[in-house]
Design goal:
mainly alpha; 0% strand; 439 residues; disordered N terminus
């Protein structure tokens, strides 16, 4: 009996440890999104101070951040597949937090652009490393939910960014809001270094944690050979195109088309994208795990449903003149912006070897952010400026409605991924077994 009690105690310590690590990593993702999204609520004040057009706002929110966030993700993911992930996350966290504070200290627009670039570089080092750590902490049947819990950090970050950022900006200005957004990450850096361990790679899967990380070219061949990966990437980047377009410009839309104040917009966005969005993101991972036990294709079907649901509501949301009707119609589209993350990351990491996971995730992030964050907000900004002579202040309504086309493409991508998912996972697992059987 004493042996049973010791075993149970050890098991509880392991579970407690992994839940703590998941909580810390989720908190990092939370401050990641605070620092990333606080700019959206500050756009009207930044626009006024620097005299920017919507096109320049789209450039600041989208490509300026996205290009460096996405491109730096690959080399940092290659590093994450080879070095201690805890230390990499801590350094990256400290960098993007410090650069967010720097955004509040700039005096010229080009300095703000540079600070946002370096914010993107820092944030690129946390995502793939964190997501692969989570995979190494939880068994396959619980990973969708664990990844979804991590993904709720995005929703909670948006909640804090919009609610607190809006209130702080209205009371003390946009510079103080940036400084306040960057401070928690510096504190969290100390927590990571003091309390988080880097779990053994692949131990839960097959005990092959000592396998060598393959060369970058080999990882790219593995990814390209998987049709499930290619279609998942299409679905994810199309969802990101619409999600980042909505998340970046919806506050400005509420101010311009419905006359809401900065604090009103912040509270509204926090409730919809933070509270409702967090519940939706968690539910997506929960249902993907629940139904995926019997049919792995549900890891693709769930994000397909999440992309389909907003489409009939979008015209009501963006074209309604009544603020209440517009906000009611916005709940589902805005709540589902991050619902794809948990199931999608679970899929991607099932399709590649253990030591390729961070690189595979970073490849997906590269595609998602170049097309989604890089082009989504920029598309809305350009379209709004181009259509303004004909549509006046309503040009932003139609630009955001046009961006919903990304969700339609996303449905197609995820449905096609489902057709190939089981076969590609089976091929990957068979390839992993062959070396052991030959030995």
């Amino acid at each position: 009996m004493s042996g049973d009690r010791a075993s149970a105690g050890a098991s509880n310590r392991i579970v407690g440890s992994r839940n703590w690590i998941l909580g810390v990593l989720t908190s990092i993702y939370l401050v990641n999104f605070i620092d990333r999204q606080v700019l959206a609520i500050l756009l009207p004040q930044v626009k006024a101070e620097f005299g920017l057009s919507d096109t320049f706002l789209g450039l600041l929110v989208g490509p300026t951040f996205a290009f460096f966030y996405a491109t730096m993700g690959l080399p940092l993911a290659l590093l994450a597949d080879r070095v201690n992930r805890r230390r990499l996350i801590a350094v990256s966290l400290a960098l993007f937090s410090a650069m967010t504070i720097a955004c509040g200290l700039v005096v010229q627009f080009w300095q703000l652009v540079l600070a946002r670039i370096l914010t993107g570089v820092g944030e690129a080092g946390t995502g793939p490393a964190s997501q692969t750590m989570i995979t190494d902490l939880y068994p396959p049947e619980r990973r969708g939910r664990a990844q979804a819990i991590y993904a709720t950090g995005a929703n909670l970050g948006v909640l804090v960014a919009f609610a607190a950022g809006g209130v702080i900006a209205q009371a003390w200005g946009w510079r103080v809001a940036f400084i306040a957004a960057g401070m928690p990450g510096l504190v969290l850096t100390v927590v990571v270094l003091a309390t988080v361990r880097d779990p053994e790679r692949g131990a839960i899967d097959s005990g092959v944690s000592q396998e060598q990380a393959p060369a970058f070219g080999m990882v790219m061949r593995q990814i390209w050979q998987s049709r499930a990966f290619r279609y998942t990437a299409l679905g994810a980047c199309s969802t990101c195109f619409t999600s980042y377009a909505l998340g970046s410009f919806f506050p400005l839309f509420l101010a311009r088309s419905h006359g809401l104040s900065t604090s009103e917009i912040g509270i509204t966005m926090a409730l919809i994208m933070g509270v409702c969005g967090g519940l939706a993101t968690y539910a997506a991972g929960h249902f993907a795990d629940r139904f995926g036990r019997n049919d792995q294709r549900w890891y693709s079907y769930v994000p397909a449903i999440a992309a389909l649901a907003p489409l009939p509501l979008a015209p009501i949301c963006f074209l309604a003149q009544d603020t209440g009707i517009a906000l009611a119609a916005a709940i589902i589209p805005l709540s589902l912006t991050a619902a794809f993350i948990g199931p999608t990351i679970t899929i991607i990491q099932r399709l590649v070897p253990v030591r390729s996971r961070a690189t595979a995730v970073a490849t997906l992030i590269l595609v998602d952010n170049i097309i989604g964050l890089g082009l989504g907000p920029q598309f809305v900004g350009i379209a709004s400026d181009l259509w303004k002579p004909a549509l006046g202040e309503d040009s932003l309504r139609y630009a955001m409605l046009a961006a919903m086309a990304g969700s339609a493409v996303s449905v197609f991508g995820f449905v096609m991924a489902a057709r190939h998912l089981r076969g590609d996972i089976a091929m990957r697992e068979a390839a992993a077994v062959m070396p052991a059987s030959n030995g």
